[in-house]
Amino acid sequence: VGGIAEMVEPGVTGYHADVEQLGDIAAYIRRLFNDAELYAAMAKAAKQAADQYNLNKQVSDIELLLQKKS
Fold this sequence. Notes:
- By secondary structure, this protein is mainly α.
- It has helices at about 5, 20-35, 35-50, 55-70.
- It is elongated, with a radius of gyration of 17 Å.
């Protein structure tokens, strides 16, 4: 999906996998299923990364920039 790949930092916020490479996808799922610490760390990092793209946050950041220019 366009834009999503740029948001994912492999091994930190998720994994990149070709949709046709089912073995790779299964390995990533197994890795997360078997490593609760990795799962928790990756989930936290992904949430923080996604928050950067929150529309309300972006609008708020733009409003702050515009206020500083006034």
